[in-house]
């Protein structure tokens, strides 16, 4: 769809075979790419690859595939100075659900935008299925012509993923404001409960990535016995901080930033790199298995 839109608009489409961060960076420089869709790990790596005399000509940058911390987005914008920067919210099943309008430029980094053309969004309480109002967090449900028809040879799963009004249940938590802008809060699968308190691993990752030494963070939930689940964290360090800070110092800093039930009781490990999925996301299941 993205390729067709670009071609219909009369743009030149450039395709690369090298999908490493360094390869894509050099490709964008060489062919003066002005519009690009990047996943959060690649955006982080672009920041590391940046140099003062870069020949990059990026004007429109869209972050897609996973959650991008706001501080990383701000760092990218300050270096590459695109005219437009936005998160894209969507999924394989629902297509492009929401993006920020072009008029917002680089100013709207908290919201994932407004619903795309012909997309209807409602927020519901996942327990009662009742529709929620502005600023009330619930499950994001989507209806549009681009939503898939169902899972191949799995009628039961298909039925479970759609409500009686034909809305697809994304499994994501979010809310909208009084102007109709949508905000992604977390994935229900990323939520854990410790000592009866419910919170999201994504929130903990955002806090970890606010530390000046941390490049990327991933948090998983591990068993805590009768207390429920507790977080365990993995981080990569920025180049200038390697061998200058250890796990205990990061843990002490983090635990001072949060209430007791959000503390990383499962431990924190500094790693050289993260295992990645085929779609460019951090493979949290691999972290859990190992």
What do you see in this structure?
By secondary structure, the chain is α+β, with helices and mostly antiparallel strands. It folds into three domains: 2-82, Rossmann fold (3-Layer(aba) Sandwich), CATH 3.40.50.980; 114-187, Luciferase, Domain 3 (Luciferase, domain 3, Roll); 195-289, 2-Layer Sandwich (GMP Synthetase, Chain A, domain 3). 23% of the residues lie in helices and 27% in strands. The chain has eight helices and 14 strands. The strands form four sheets. It has a five-stranded mixed sheet. A four-stranded antiparallel sheet has the order 6-7-8-9. Strands 12-13-14 form a three-stranded mixed sheet. Helix 3 crosses helix 4. The chain is globular and about 60 Å long. The mean pLDDT is 91.
What would the keywords be for this entry?
Luciferase, domain 3; alpha+beta; five-stranded mixed beta sheet; GMP Synthetase, Chain A, domain 3; 23% helix; four-stranded antiparallel beta sheet; 8 helices; 290 residues; Rossmann fold; 3 domains; 14 strands
The CATH architecture of the largest domain comes to 2-Layer Sandwich
State the total count of DSSP E strands: 14
Distance between the termini: 37 Å
Calculate Rg over CA atoms: 20 Å
The CATH superfamily of the largest domain turns out to be: ANL, C-terminal domain
Low-confidence runs (pLDDT<50, min 5 residues)?
A: none
Query: Which fold name corresponds to the CATH topology of the largest domain?
Result: GMP Synthetase, Chain A, domain 3
CATH class of the largest domain: Alpha Beta
Spatial sequence of strands, sheet with the most strands: 1-2-3-4-5
Give the helix proportion (percent range): 10-25%
Element-by-element helix/strand order = HHEHEHEEEEEHEEEEHEEHEH
Domain AMP-binding enzyme C-terminal: 203-281
GO molecular function: CoA-ligase activity
Subcellular location: Peroxisome
Keywords: Ligase, Peroxisome
């Amino acid at each position: 769809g993205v390729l067709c839109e670009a071609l219909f608009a009369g743009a030149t489409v450039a395709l690369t075979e090298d999908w490493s961060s360094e390869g894509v960076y050099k490709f964008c420089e060489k062919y003066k790419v002005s519009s690009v869709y990047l996943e959060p790990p690649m955006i982080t790596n672009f920041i590391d690859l940046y140099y003062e005399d870069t020949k990059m000509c990026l004007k429109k940058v869209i972050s897609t595939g996973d959650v991008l911390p706001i501080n990383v987005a701000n760092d990218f914008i300050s270096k590459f100075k695109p005219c437009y920067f936005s998160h894209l919210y969507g999924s394989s099943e629902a297509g492009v659900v929401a993006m920020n309008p072009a008029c917002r430029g680089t100013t709207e980094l908290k919201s994932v935008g407004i619903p795309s053309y012909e997309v209807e969004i409602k927020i519901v309480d996942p327990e009662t299925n009742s529709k929620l109002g502005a600023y009330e967090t619930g499950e994001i449900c989507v209806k549009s012509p681009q939503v898939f028809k169902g899972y191949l040879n799995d009628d039961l799963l298909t039925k479970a993923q759609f409500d009686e009004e034909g809305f697809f249940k994304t499994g994501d938590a979010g809310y909208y404001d009084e102007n109709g802008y949508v905000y992604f809060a977390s994935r229900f699968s990323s939520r854990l409960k410790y000592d009866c308190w419910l919170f999201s691993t994504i929130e903990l990752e955002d806090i970890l990535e606010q530390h000046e030494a941390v490049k990327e963070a991933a948090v998983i939930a591990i068993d805590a016995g009768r207390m429920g689940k507790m977080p365990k964290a993995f981080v990569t360090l920025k180049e200038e901080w390697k061998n200058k800070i250890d796990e205990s110092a990061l843990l002490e800093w983090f635990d001072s930033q949060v209430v007791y039930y959000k503390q990383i009781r499962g431990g924190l490990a500094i790693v050289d790199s993260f295992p990645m999925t085929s779609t460019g996301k951090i493979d949290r299941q691999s972290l859990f298995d190992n």
